[in-house]
Each structure stands twice: as structure tokens, then as C-alpha cells.
Amino acid sequence: MHKVHSADGATIAYEKSGHSLPLLVIHGDYVDHSQWNTALPFLAQDFTTYVMDRRGHGKSDPYRTGHTLERDVEDTLAVLETIHEPACLLGHATGAYIALEAAARSAFATRVVLYEPPVVGAALNLEPHRSALSRCLAVDDRQGLITIVLNDISGATTGRELPPAAINGLLQSAYGQILLRNARSLPAELASYAAYEFDVERFRSFTLPTLFLLGSYSPPFNSLVTEKLRAVLPQSKTALLEGQEHNAMTTAPELLAQVLRTQLRGGSTAFDPAP
Question: Given this structure, which CATH class describes domain 2-120+197-264?
């Protein structure tokens, strides 16, 4: 993997593949760049694709004490500086916030794609779970960490909890293996999401063309933040990923690449506003 140093000296790793228009991908919560491995061959047909490991994940340096989402933004800006030419940013889940914040500060950002940013901030209600997370971390109970996050924290926010058999099955999957590899970062990662104050009004002056991706089968709570941002971003539209939910990069990588090709490789420098 390629590596770059962020503003505070942390090493950030990223994969590079393909050719033509630069596309920087910022992965979502709890995983690393490898969640995009299935999609890379399709994306590489039309883009020079850079998929970074966010700090605390994969081959990038671990979190430092007091980690905040601001460090993730600085890391993304460091990769953009390395690319050093006009680039599109694609952020998945919490990576969407990082993509949006970085695009607002970088002269190299030309367009932004935001794939189902979740609810963050105080709604995560971490306090009742901090001691349990700490106990699991102390004994390297990665399955325990993942269960607390998926059911007690995220599940409480979304209303979707998984029974033990479903958790066990999930952890046997390729996605589950990525979760296990990155599980020790979960407490600090969640703390950074809970501390992030998302104020949609800050982005009223954001003028870069912005594409929102939504799975047509995604539950309604996945679109809550998208709807708020759509209301304030003047140059934005939404593309539906038909038959998909939150992880089209693994369930329908060719479809995802086709949508991005259509929306990002056209002759216009802006997206047509949605009706």
C-alpha cells in the first residue's frame, strides 16, 4: 500500500488502482479499505481509485489519545494533497461526513458522493456502554465489542438488533472478518462520532456538486441525514441503487460503478438538480 503522513505525523495508508479521473474513497465505520476490494476492478475501469485506510483501521496508524473526526478530515486532506489534482470524493456511512468536511476545505475537490451518512452525535448515547466496552477491550473480546456496538449502540438508534446466531453468522462472513480485524478501534471510533456536532446549516454555502447514494431497499433511518443535507445543498441530487441497501460496494459492485460512471464521467461539471 502507498503511505502518506498526516498533519500530526500519523501514517495513513491507501490503495491506488485504475486510471483517469481521480476518485478518493473514504470507507465507513468499523471496517477498512478492504471492504471495497470487490468494487475496485469495476471502479478502476473509469477512475484512478484511491481507497484509504482511515486512522485506526487497516494499515494506517492507530488512534491517538482524544481522537476526533477532525483528525480523519486532516488525514483525508493529506491524501488529497498527495493526489495533487482535481478529484472526486466518495464517503460511505460515517466516511461521508469526512468526505464532506474535507471537500469544503480542499482546492482539489471537484465533486462529492455521499452514501447514506448515519445519525451521529449525542443520539448514540455511549455513556451506558463505556464500561462494558472497556472490559471487552481489556481482554481483547472482539466479538463482545462488535455485539455491543451493533446491538446496544447502533441497534438502539436504528431499531435493528441481531440475535446471537445472526452475530455468529455475520462474524464468519468476509465483512465479519473485517469487523474483527478492526474491533479494537471501536470504543475510540464511537467516541469520535458521539462528539461530532453535525450542524447542517454549516453547509448552506457548500457549492460543490454533490451526489447522494441511497439503496432502494435501505430502511428509512438510512436517509434521515441525506434528507437534511439535500434541503440545504443547492447543487445536489440523489441516485437510487436499485435492489440494494447500505453496502452496494460488496453486494452490487458493478451497479455501483455504473452509477458513478454515469454521474461522474459525464461532460457536465455539475449534477442536474433533482426534481
Answer: alpha beta
Contacts of 70 (CB under 8 A, 6+ apart): none
Structural domain boundaries in the chain: 2-120+197-264, 123-193
- Which residues lie closer than 8 Å to 238 by C-beta, 6 or more apart? 211, 212, 213, 214, 226, 230, 274
8 A C-beta contact, residue 106 and residue 78 = no
Res. 154 pLDDT band, cuts 50 70 90 = confident
DSSP 149: I
What does residue 196 show for φ and ψ, rounded to 5 degrees?
-75, 125
Burial 32-62 (b: 16+ CB within 10 A, else e): bbbbbebbbebbbebbbbbbbbbbbbbbbbe
Greatest Cα pair distance in the chain: 54
Cα–Cα dist 52/59, whole Å:
9
pLDDT given at position 90: 99
- Chain-centroid distance of CA 260 in Å reads 16
- Residue among 1, 231, 212 nearest 90 (CA): 212
Condensed to tens digits (0 to 9), the pLDDT of residues 65-104 reads 999 999 999 999 999 999 999 999 999 999 999 999 999 9
Closest Cα partner for 196 from 71, 78, 47, 91?
71
Cell of residue 128, nine digits? 451506558
